[in-house]
């Protein structure tokens, strides 16, 4: 017996038309993604931005909302180092610089040089984020500059000079991708640079906002984090320590053991520096304000605590303990790369 099968009619023209429907920018990006990780990044699954303080909101080292003269190879806004060669420059945290609610950092040359350069450096290394060095990494930033040779580039085992700004004084998003699997550390830089030092004129500037580093080959929209979360990430690299955090025990009539907790835990044992400010202790009735008389003679600070042995006190009672509630800044703990 013959069996007859029937199928519903299909309008081939309509089906072909459906294939032509646009998927939109987001859909196109999903289709281009080559790995599940890139798709997770696009839909915001997990943390995407591996750069810290890329929105330039945290500034623990001081108030740089006014232009401040730059020393070479020094950190100002957290996690970003200012470098300059053969020129002088300033750095400024521009509140709402990119647009309302989104800050930027601005570097301005204050002298001229035919063989100089200046710019901003963000440094990561293998031990922090080993996943960055296992394949393609995309980094991006919004940049505004009047110097036509300003580039966003990577310095690793050698110079890599990618995407360039037009130098027209307008905001442009610069994006580049590298495979970092053959390196163990890398600096991410925004500089006027093309493989040779550049002509710099006083008044040249570079302004940067929304700096982002992410796995894969796709630059996704900037990941916004709360100020508290961003501050905690920065404090793994640098912390201010105030008098109110300290407690001490006298080991002689002139020396005191100073301790203070570090929170969050720092990424490695920090370098501790005594800064201007008065160390005072309630209960002992003693204080010390001069950095020259408060030189540490021993230090066993770790990632979780500060430990210093200071001199310059007088009239202490040995083996007595005291603390303070003062807000005076007395130490810094630095674990930058």
What does this protein structure show overall?
This protein is mostly beta strands. The protein has helices at residues 12-19, 24-32, 36-43, 227-234, and strands at residues 68-69, 74-75, 81-85, 89-99, 102-109, 113-125, 136-145, 150-155, 159-160, 172-179, 185-192, 198-200, 205-215, 238-242, 247-250, 256-261, 271-274, 279-281, 286-288, 296-299, 305-310, 321-323, 329-334. Strands 2, 3, 6, 8, 9, 11 and 12 form a 7-stranded antiparallel β-sheet that branches. A hairpin with a 2-residue loop joins strand 4 (89-99) and strand 5. The chain is globular. The termini are far apart. 34% of the residues are buried. The mean pLDDT is 84.
């Amino acid at each position: 017996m013959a069996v007859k099968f029937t199928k519903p009619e299909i309008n081939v023209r309509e089906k072909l038309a459906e294939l032509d429907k646009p998927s939109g920018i987001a859909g196109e990006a999903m289709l281009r993604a080559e790995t599940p990780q890139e798709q997770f990044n696009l839909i915001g699954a997990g943390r995407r931005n591996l750069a810290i303080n890329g929105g330039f909101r945290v500034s623990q080292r001081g108030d740089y909302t006014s232009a401040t003269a730059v020393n070479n190879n020094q950190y100002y806004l957290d996690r970003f180092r200012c470098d300059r060669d053969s020129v002088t420059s300033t750095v400024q945290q521009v509140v709402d610089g990119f647009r309302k609610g989104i800050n930027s950092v601005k570097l301005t040359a204050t002298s001229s040089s035919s063989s100089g350069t200046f710019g901003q450096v963000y440094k990561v290394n293998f031990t922090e984020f080993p996943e960055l060095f296992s394949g393609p990494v995309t980094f991006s930033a919004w940049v505004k500059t009047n110097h036509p040779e300003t580039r966003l580039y990577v310095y690793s085992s050698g110079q890599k000079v990618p995407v360039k700004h037009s130098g027209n004084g307008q905001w442009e998003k610069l994006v580049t991708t590298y495979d970092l699997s053959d390196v163990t550390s890398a600096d991410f830089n925004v500089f006027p640079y093309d493989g040779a030092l550049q002509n710099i004129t006083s008044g040249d500037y570079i302004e940067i906002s929304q700096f982002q580093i992410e796995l894969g080959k796709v630059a996704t929209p900037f990941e916004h984090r709360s100020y508290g979360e961003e501050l905690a990430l920065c404090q793994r690299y640098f912390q201010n320590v105030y008098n109110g955090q300290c407690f001490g025990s006298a080991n002689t009539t002139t020396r005191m053991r100073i301790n203070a907790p570090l929170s969050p835990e720092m990424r490695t044992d920090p370098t501790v520096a005594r800064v201007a400010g008065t160390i005072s202790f309630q209960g002992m009735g003693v204080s010390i304000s001069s950095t020259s008389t408060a030189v540490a003679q021993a230090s066993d600070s770790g990632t979780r605590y500060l430990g210093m042995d200071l001199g310059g006190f007088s009239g202490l009672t040995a083996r007595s303990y005291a603390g303070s509630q003062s807000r005076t800044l007395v130490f810094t703990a630095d674990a930058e790369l």
